[in-house]
Write a structure and sequence with these properties.
- Strand 1 (about 70) and strand 2 (about 75-80) form a beta hairpin.
- By secondary structure, the protein is mainly alpha-helical.
- Among the domains are: about 1-145, no CATH class; about 255-345, Ankyrin repeat-containing domain (Serine Threonine Protein Phosphatase 5, Tetratricopeptide repeat, Alpha Horseshoe), CATH 1.25.40.
- The protein is about 45% helix and about 0% strand.
- The chain is built from 18 helices and 2 strands.
- A two-stranded antiparallel sheet has the order 1-2.
């Protein structure tokens, strides 16, 4: 990939963010000068970096004819004015599959032999590979927006040997508190399936499930199964895939909060998935988390009227149950109302 491809690289674009339960990647930030230069030096289909393909920041700025500048304090590459960003956003036809292109660049980089040979337990991305942190942190967000067969193939190559790739540690150390605080190690059970369930990329998850048999109930380094990760982050497509193709346990609880998948989706108000899970006979709508709260209580506390109504349709749900602090569903609904102004119609 050379400088001539620069207009097809929307490095400063910001895809729509999705609401996280953990610290999932939010809107994309700007690339640093080193990151952008090394990204432009990636030649798709190659297995190793070629320094001759990596432009200097001076060459990059000169080729952009004054439309791009470098913030010297942050070393971040930016468009020269926000009106240029607005113009480019209104001319989407200028860019052909921009997110898929960026995902392919990131995944090609992650599949370089020199990257795959790095120790998977390193705490930080080595300085010799300045694009590693961005590629590890954001390829999934690019792929969520656009996934091509090439992106899928490159992703499967990384995910098939995920436990031996530095990507896992680099990515999760940024977004999972247990790792950021040194309370857990990423090399304990966090598989490619856990990772793609965390990210919520339906097409890649389906291909991964078809590739080989997985132990879908295997907990990772903090006791989460793929279904729990998907439930925590509201990834409805992943949840449906796991239910259809893998038959995971619906009563497994995460190690930290003691919540089942139903509790997580009720808490986040994912009405479609709440209904889907409640239709499964093996689901216990009265399961309690580590604080003694039921899915109904969690839905009430988050102000999700729709999820509450769905749970209350089950005859085996007790609307008067109390948690370990003797608080009722009504208490949590009123608290939610006071803080958010949401009106809960049925109690």
């Amino acid at each position: 990939m050379g400088l001539g491809c620069l207009p097809e690289r929307p490095a400063l674009a910001r895809p729509t963010a999705y609401r996280p339960a953990y610290h999932r990647p939010g809107p994309l930030g700007t690339l640093s000068a080193d990151e952008l230069c090394h990204a432009l030096g990636v030649q798709t289909g190659s297995t190793k970096p070629n320094p001759d393909n990596t432009p200097s920041i001076q060459s990059l700025l000169a080729s952009c004819l004054g439309l791009v500048t470098v913030d010297r304090e942050e070393s971040a590459v930016r468009l020269v004015h926000f009106t240029l960003q607005e113009y480019l956003n209104s001319r989407s036809e200028m860019f052909q599959n921009p997110y898929a292109v960026m995902a392919e660049v990131c995944l090609t980089y992650l599949n370089f032999d020199c990257i795959r040979e790095l120790s998977p337990v390193l705490d930080y991305a080595p300085q010799d590979y300045p694009f590693l942190e961005h590629a590890s942190s954001y390829w999934g967000q690019y792929a969520r927006s656009e996934t091509t067969e090439s992106v899928k193939s490159l992703a499967l190559r990384v995910l098939d040997r995920f436990d031996s790739h530095i990507l896992a540690k680099v990515f999760l150390c940024r977004y999972v508190n247990e790792l950021r605080w040194g309370l857990a190690r990423v090399d304990k059970g966090f598989s490619g399936l856990h990772y793609v369930a965390y990210l919520g990329i339906d097409e890649i998850a389906e291909a991964l499930l078809d590739m080989k048999a997985w132990d879908v109930d295997k907990p990772d380094f903090i006791g989460h199964t793929p279904l729990i990760w998907a439930s925590m982050n509201g990834c409805e497509g992943i949840i449906k895939l796991l239910l259809e193709k893998a038959g995971p346990s619906l009563e497994t609880k995460d190690a930290r909060y003691g919540q089942t998948p139903l509790s997580w989706v009720a808490r986040s108000g994912q009405e479609g998935v709440v209904k889907l899970l409640l239709e499964r006979g093996e689901v216990n709508p009265e399961s309690r988390n580590s604080d003694g709260r039921t899915p109904l209580s969690l839905a009430a506390g988050s102000g999700s009227e729709g999820a509450m109504k769905l749970v209350l349709e089950r005859e085996d749900v007790d609307p008067e149950s109390r948690d370990d602090n003797n608080r009722t569903t009504l208490f949590w609904a009123v608290l939610s109302f006071l803080f958010s102004g949401l009106y809960i119609d049925r109690m």
